[in-house]
Amino acid sequence: MGHSQEEKALSREKILVAASLRIREHGLDGFSITDVMKDAELTHGGFYKHFSSRNELVAAALGHALHGSELVYDETSSPSLNAIVSEYLSTAHRDSPGEGCAVSALGSEVARADEKTRSVMAAHLRKYQEKMSEAIDGTKESQLASPLVCTMMGALILSRLIDDESASNNVLEQAKTFILSFSDSK
Q1: Is 72's pLDDT higher than 80?
Q2: Superfamily for 3-184?
């Protein structure tokens, strides 16, 4: 790869990092191209060298944000249910929406987004449920995966909405206890 192609790839990555953080913190409509380019320490004019539109950026940034969580549970690892649930339902995850799960941060917004953006998240959810299934019973089709993923995501969203830290922590702990009770019953 030539030097200019390498720089272009690096600039695109900087834009994606900045945009993926912004969308998780402020929502799909909560930022401007100017904000993202400033965060990436690039000029606004350079945006169109990388993306044809804001919608293209949103879909790519969502993919980037979702890929970050896929790296935690990549194809070679088989995390335990306890590891997945403990990380996901942690106070650190709750308190860092810009670096956390894009599904829980953006799910309701993406449901109303364009088809490309929705398909990016749908593909991620399928992979995530397969990983959960494997952690639950070693298969890719556990009947428990979908309700347990819904419980995790719902608990994280609710814990972020509650303005009392003790009550918020309690939501996380109760959901964790509930989900892990299924691993004890196998």
Answers
A1: no
A2: Tetracycline Repressor, domain 2 (1.10.357.10)
